[in-house]
Amino acid sequence: MDQIEKRHSLIKAWLQEAAALLRESFNKELEIKEKTSRTDLVTNMDRAIEVFLYEKITAHFPDERILGEESVGHDIQDLEGIVWIIDPIDGTLNFIKQGENFAIMIAIYEDGVGHMGYIYDVVRDELYFAIRDNGAYCNERRLPLVQELPLSEGLVAISNRLVVADADEARRIAKKSSGLRVNGSAGLETAWVASGKLVAYIAPSLAPWDIAAGMVIAEEVGLVYRQVTGKEINLLQNNAVIVANRCAFQDIRNEWR
Ligand code: IPD
Ligand code: CA
Ligand code: CA
């Protein structure tokens, strides 16, 4: 546990430092570039935060590997040993266009098993985190196990990509729920399912760094975090995912064509 406590304190301190860098950036002009399209943007701060975390991790844990969205870390082809999985800004479009609704995400996996997961909502100052077998928290508050609510009794979040790619699917699921939300940060939407604000989150193509931290938190509150096919998540590729309590998960699967 000493090792875990040490890592936990370091990660929390790094997240505060990284958040301060992001807050400072609000007063400066962002450098914004298109990655693959006009809806897939990256800023100088995405890279700056990934470099910051990379340097901290390698200074303290030089033998451990890092998988990061902005490719500052290692070329990861397997999950042997300890692998840090980081998304420096989850919700970059929100960061650019809203100045809120984005998060910094860090996870630690060992031999493919998630041990620590952190999703930091910088603007709300809400740190969602979980340590395997030790529960999940939002700041100091322990998150209870999720309620087994059906889809019909809760709000469901869907990624914009699903609405655009398969509007019929999205409409069917939205109709069966209490209401649809599209927030634009896979990490925060997962954290909100874990804290009971949403009953489920669905996305047709999430990368390993979109999933890793949230999956550790989901596990600790009794959520199912699976591919839409029902298969386990594969953290070496993109996945179409559902995060939900068991009951809502089944309801969504029943609507899935
Ligand atoms: C994106 C966000 C978005 C989700 C996309 C992700 P990014 O992450 O989480 O909500 O729909 O699939 O790529 O690019 O802002 O880190
Ligand atoms: Ca992301
Ligand atoms: Ca990102």
Structure description:
The structure is a single chain. This protein has 257 residues and is α+β, with helices and mostly antiparallel strands. Helices cover 37% and strands 29% of the residues. It contains eight helices and 14 strands. The strands form three sheets. Strands 3-4-5-6-7-8-9 form a seven-stranded mixed beta sheet, with helices on both faces. Bound molecules: D-MYO-inositol-1-phosphate (IPD) and calcium ion (2 copies).
Can you tag this structure with a few keywords?
alpha+beta; D-Maltodextrin-Binding Protein, domain 2; single chain; 14 strands; globular; Fructose-1,6-Bisphosphatase, Chain A, domain 1; seven-stranded mixed β-sheet; 37% helix; binds D-MYO-inositol-1-phosphate; 257 residues; binds calcium ion
Strand content: 25-35%
What's the multimeric state?
single chain
Strands in their spatial order, largest beta sheet: 3-4-5-6-7-8-9
CATH-defined topology of the largest domain: Fructose-1,6-Bisphosphatase, Chain A, domain 1
CATH architecture of the largest domain: 2-Layer Sandwich
How many domains is the backbone divided into? 2
Instruction: Point out poorly predicted stretches.
Output: none
Whole-Å distance between the termini?
45 Å
CATH superfamily of the largest domain: Fructose-1,6-Bisphosphatase, subunit A, domain 1
What's this, in brief?
The protein is an alpha+beta fold. The chain has helices spanning 2-25, 44-60, 92-97, 160-165, 167-176, 186-194, 208-220, 246-255; strands at residues 32-37, 40-43, 65-68, 82-90, 103-110, 113-121, 126-131, 136-138, 141-142, 155-158, 179-181, 200-206, 224-227, 239-244. Helices cover 37% and strands 29% of the residues.
